[in-house]
Design goal:
Length: 292
Amino acid sequence: MKEPSLRASRLAIAGSIVGILLVGGAGFLLGRNTSGRDQVPAAPPAPVPQPVVAPADPKPNVLDRAGLIALAAAAVDAEAAGAPLPERVIQSDGRRFLVNLPFGCGGPAPAASEAPMRWRIDAKALRIHVEPISLPVMDWLQPAPGEVEAAAEAYWIARPWTSSESCPAHAVGQEGLDAPVPEETLALAQFHLVEGRRQGRRAGQPLETVQRVTGEMPDLSQGLRLRISGRIGNVPGRNSPVLCRRPADAGQRPVCLISIVTDEMAIVNPATGETLATWSVDRADAVGRRGD
């Protein structure tokens, strides 16, 4: 067998190297061209849904008219059934409240009117009179605690079957018509201790303010409102802020009162939203836009 020459070996080796380089280069170019087509860009991560947070109630513990009526209704239901007061009634001690009591819905009162809550316009002046009802403590508490004054100051919640704080639509302009006096079954009452604070105590004195009328007459088409704010407090000597008195006739609705501690009272014109006068617990005189 003939041995290959040195020249032939060198040519064979060179050819092999060239072949390897050509195959490697072609593979590199093919991979480069195909990798760009096959590579799929990664999809951005899906956004994580954020939980919807409900806005916080700015007055979560403040009872309005509807809340006060519901509180009394729960007490009445327990009273009628001879059952203990619900826990939510007992635990309402200390809760804050804000309620608007409409009055003067039928228009201005006559000059000789003795309605506890009234208004009239006389000699270019709006005269407003709001007087609390005096409730004898002996009629409600037996025996009456000696540290409590003989009378509580109260304001009836008219039409306690509705949560509306507005005058009834049919009442406007009906002041002079004969109509039965609605039954009064729910009141906000403030008891006073004999040795308690004297600031802000009305002692039966009415809230009165005189507003000068200049130019056009004020819009009083929706009557006025007495706005009362404060907190609920237990009836003296009782473990509940609601006290109901059962009538002689079992077919009648019990009369109830809710014990309150007043912080501030104000007269508001609902037609304009204007606060005409305010009385705070530390200031017996009205503060507001007053007349001479």
